């Protein structure tokens, strides 16, 4: 007998995403908002990190084993360092399964990044 049960899928509500900061065109950032956004952009400012982030985000199923994304032209310890930096910036989450670590980009992170870079709606 299986203890597995099917859970209903919940569609993400794009309005429910709480971005780190308002859209750049809405108002000037506070010091805390600027610090948060800078940490995120700094993590993505390295080409290897950007490639790793893209590899995880575009991987089938929305998650990737480190064994599947480590071919970015640097050594494995360097890949681990870059993945750690992406996690510290809040861009990736991870889960260890046996000897491998699987990385995920949370949908809310991508939505928040998109909202940050959109033009604020005009006041009516």
Report what the structure shows:
This protein has helices at residues 31-44, 47-58, 66-69, 76-88, 107-116, and strands at residues 63-65, 93-97, 100-104. It has 5 helices and 3 strands, in the order ααβααββα. With 124 residues, it is mainly alpha-helical.
Rg from alpha-carbon coordinates = 17 Å
Please provide the ordered H/E string of secondary-structure elements: HHEHHEEH
Number of helices: 5
- How much beta, percentage-wise? 5-15%
Shape: elongated
Short précis:
The protein is mostly helical. The chain has helices at 31-44, 47-58, 66-69, 76-88, 107-116; strands at residues 63-65, 93-97, 100-104.
What tags apply to this protein structure?
124 residues, mainly alpha, three-stranded antiparallel β-sheet, 3 strands
List the helices and strands and how they pair.
Blueprint lengths: L30 H14 L2 H12 L4 E3 H4 L6 H13 L4 E5 L2 E5 L2 H10 L8
Antiparallel strand pairs: 1-3, 2-3
Helix pairs in contact: 2-4
């Amino acid at each position: 007998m299986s203890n597995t049960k099917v859970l209903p899928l919940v569609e993400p509500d794009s309005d429910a995403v709480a971005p780190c900061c308002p859209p750049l065109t809405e108002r000037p950032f506070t010091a805390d908002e600027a610090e948060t956004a800078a940490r995120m952009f700094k993590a993505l400012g390295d080409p290897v990190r950007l490639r790793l982030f893209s590899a995880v985000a575009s991987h089938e199923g929305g998650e990737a084993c480190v064994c599947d994304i480590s071919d970015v032209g640097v050594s494995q310890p360097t890949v681990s360092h870059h993945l750690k930096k992406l996690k510290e910036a809040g861009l990736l989450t991870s889960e260890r399964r046996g000897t491998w670590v699987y990385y995920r980009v949370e949908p809310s992170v991508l939505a928040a990044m998109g909202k940050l870079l959109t033009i604020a709606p005009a006041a009516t």
